[in-house]
């Protein structure tokens, strides 16, 4: 490619980035009476649980602004998506999409298709998290009674806090750091190259197969370990 073409492409690129930065847009939505959330298509989500009321706010930069968003409610489920599938070029021209959700009590969260989510605040006593397709999730200060975590397809998740019982399933190269989540009873399964760090203070049931790797901290007194087809489980004090 000639210098002229390189310079022209660079100028177009810089113009697109400048336009993206210059056109920021905020929008508030009137949704309420939901306790579960699903987010997809490379959207950045912040969830504040334990709020006194419901709030949904979108922030977007770029040519299309928040018009790219498709937010709907199906009973207790809030669905946050794009009208069109995300692509790298779309991200370059239109920039990031950010959504902040406040609600009294989060019961379930599904993070899909390259999205990234952060969760803080008081959760429900029984909570479920599902993270898939290269997505990221961070949960701070969990104080749930029971936790159900499913993570797959190269996704990453970290969580801290405490719980009575946790059920964790990870597969397909997913990574979960739950070493700072102190739970009494943990049942954990890692397959297909998944990597899990967890803490169990009383009892753990761990099953690793097909290159799955599990590290258990907390020195649980009761252990039930299964390792097959290259899976590995380590019990640490």
Structural overview:
The chain has two domains: 1-106, Pectate Lyase C-like (3 Solenoid); 125-237, Pectate Lyase C-like (3 Solenoid), CATH 2.160.20.120. By secondary structure, the protein is mainly beta. The chain contains two helices and 18 strands. The chain has helices spanning 3-22, 88-94; strands at 24-29, 36-39, 44-49, 55-61, 69-74, 77-82, 97-103, 108-111, 116-121, 126-131, 136-143, 146-151, 156-170, 175-191, 195-209, 213-217, 222-228, 232-235. The chain has an 18-stranded mixed β-sheet that branches.
Number of helices: 2
Major sheet attributes? 18 strands, mixed
Q: Indicate the low-confidence ranges by residue numbers.
A: 7-22
CATH class of the largest domain: Mainly Beta
Share of residues in strands: over 45%
Tally of strands: 18
The helix content, as a percent range, equals 10-25%
The Rg value, from CA coordinates, equals 21 Å
Class based on secondary structure composition and strand pairing: mainly beta
Q: Could you tell me the mean pLDDT? A: 90
Integer count of domains: 2
CATH architecture of the largest domain: 3 Solenoid
H/E element order: HEEEEEEHEEEEEEEEEEEE
What is the 3D form? globular
CATH third-tier fold name of the largest domain:
Pectate Lyase C-like
Distance between the amino and carboxyl termini = 59 Å
Brief descriptors of the model:
mainly beta, 18 strands, 2 helices, Pectate Lyase C-like, 237 residues, 18-stranded mixed sheet
In short:
With 237 residues, this protein is mainly beta. Helix content is 11%, strand content 57%. The protein folds into two domains: 1-106, Pectate Lyase C-like; 125-237, Pectate Lyase C-like.
């Amino acid at each position: 490619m000639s210098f002229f073409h390189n310079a022209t492409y660079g100028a177009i690129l810089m113009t697109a980035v400048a336009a993206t930065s210059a056109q920021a847009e905020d929008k508030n939505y009137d949704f309420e009476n939901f306790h579960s959330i699903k987010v997809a298509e490379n959207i950045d989500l912040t969830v504040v649980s334990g709020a006194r009321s419901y709030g949904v706010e979108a922030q977007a930069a770029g040519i299309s602004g928040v018009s790219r968003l498709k937010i709907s409610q199906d009973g207790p489920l809030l669905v946050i998506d794009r009208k069109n599938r995300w692509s790298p070029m779309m991200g370059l021209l239109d920039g990031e999409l950010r959504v902040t959700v406040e609600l009294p009590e989060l019961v379930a969260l599904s993070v899909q298709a390259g999205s990234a989510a952060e969760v803080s605040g008081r959760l429900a006593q029984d909570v479920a998290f599902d993270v898939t397709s290269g997505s990221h999730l961070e949960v701070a200060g969990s104080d749930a009674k029971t936790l159900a975590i499913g993570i797959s397809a190269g996704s990453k998740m970290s969580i801290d806090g405490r719980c009575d019982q946790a059920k964790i399933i990870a597969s397909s190269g997913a990574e979960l750091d739950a070493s700072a989540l102190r739970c009494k009873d943990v049942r954990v399964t890692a397959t297909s190259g998944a990597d899990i760090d967890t803490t169990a203070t009383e009892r753990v049931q761990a099953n690793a197969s097909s290159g799955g790797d599990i590290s258990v901290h907390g020195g649980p007194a009761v252990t039930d370990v299964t390792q097959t087809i290259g899976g590995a489980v380590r019990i640490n004090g």
